[in-house]
Amino acid sequence: xxxxxxxxxxxxxTAIIYCRLSRxxxxxxxxxxxxxxxxxxxxxxxxxxxxxxxxYCDDGISGVTMNRPAFNQMIESITMGKASAVxxxxxxxxxxxxxxVGKLTEEFFPEHNIRFIAVSDGIDTAEGENEFAxxxxxxxxxxxxxxxKKRRISNKIKGTSGEPLGPPPYGYKKDxxxxxxxxxxxxxxxxxxxxxxxxxSGMGSAQICNVLExxxxxxxxxxxxxxxxxxxxxxxxxxxxxxNSSTVHNIxxxxxxxxxxxxxxxYSISYKNKKRHENSPENMVVFKEVNTPxxxxxxxxxxxxxxxxKPLKSGEHNMFSGLLVCSDCGSTLHYHFNQNNPxxxxxSCSGYNxxxxxxxxxxxxxxxxxxxxxxxxxxxxxxxxACKHEEAFTQAVANYSKKVMETDQKxxxxxxxxxxxxxxxxxxxxxxxxxxxxxxxxxDDRFRKLSHKYEAEQxxxxxxxxQLKKAFDECSxxxxxxxTFVNAVKKYTRVKKLTPRMLTELIEKIExxxxxxxxxxxxxxxxxxxxxxxxxxxxxxxxxxxxxxxxKTRKGVTVNYGTPLAV
Length: 567
What we know:
Radius of gyration: 33 Å
Helix content: 40-55%
Low-confidence stretches: 1-7, 311-315, 563-567
Number of helices: 15
Structural class: alpha/beta
Number of strands: 21
Shape: elongated
Distance between the termini: 92 Å
Oligomer: single chain
Strand order of the largest sheet: 2-1-3-4-5
Number of domains: 4
């Protein structure tokens, strides 16, 4: 492209310099730094007679992806005709994607009359086509692939040896004497414990966010920036105290706060696709109690237990949400209120009348006011048992803990062996029908039907196997601390009112049975399963009778609890 001496338009005198640096390029040394690229390209543009320079820079972004903020802005400027030339240090700065970079240099730039100069590679489109440019692009992509492969191998070695693959989460900081070890960061650690306490007291994530904002607590990103920690972030909120519910949820569900290191939580499909996907539990590697814990493992378990409790669409939440299960089908009971009389609040089986997927034949309806009286009465009875007969109670807790763990593990292990055997059997069946189809023993149509059937069964098996493995790990991971539970029970000796925290500390689940009518009296059974002890069978000789509770319903029917029923 020859430059005439005629009066030029401003765009003809304007050149774009594009700089890019990623972690991979750090290996190339100081010459690839943003400052050196800027200095080199500015001089080259001025030497070529360009008086106006527009700079675009992507720092810390891989050249494999073409979706880069500054790069996209540069393309937009070119499309709008704001420049006549683009300068880069070399082709790899433009990108390490053979196909996309080729489209840019061979199609996009010529279409928009752009002079392209890669200084270190000696490429200048004003001097004609460069035969070696496609080869350089190919080598640039191979370099990215090679670096990615080496990094994956390196991460595999580090991750399986217990070295954390990511930076410390909010609440921890790197040990200056050992970068592979994390130390507790006292200020955010206090916030994490406060968040735990608020959640255990029954507050939802949105409510916790409001409290943190009111107390002007910096968000994790803003705290990291204030301390000079390097944290990757695409955008920052105008309000540094504006917490997000997802941030609170992540803190509440993070197992690392128990002192654990968890590697390979996510993975990418290929070096060209940087999107992270959640890994399955069996592909993760967990190293327990490597660092000093911020929260106890018992607190973590309690938080996970209440993590899935959902409020009504109106936003109203009930402390029993997520605790109630149907005695017949095992479904969770959902929280509702009467449309005509909102003061009447109740739970009913989610498996009842669920369209075509009806899996329960009864509503298992129970009113909240009745439930509160029942649970309060039973908790009082349990605390009296723990205080008056401490030795018997402690022994009951210890025996139950051991029995439950052993029984659950045996059942799961047996089912897991059977499922895995069937999974292998299906692999063999696949091979047989494939060979039979090739040899003509079965038709293509028959082959398709059988393969679809086996695939569906194997998919279902895989899902169930993953569930069992996860449950198996959780069971062995779960801590049954007898002394802790006994102390928790004693803490509520003089309880007068139920609280969400009390339910979390004491109760695992509550089974609700369908009511029965006998001699005109409606009676309903509720079975409470306590943490560490299950459903308590208090000996009759201890003289701790069940609470006798009854309420009058709006239809004038009396509902009783405590009357013996054959259920």
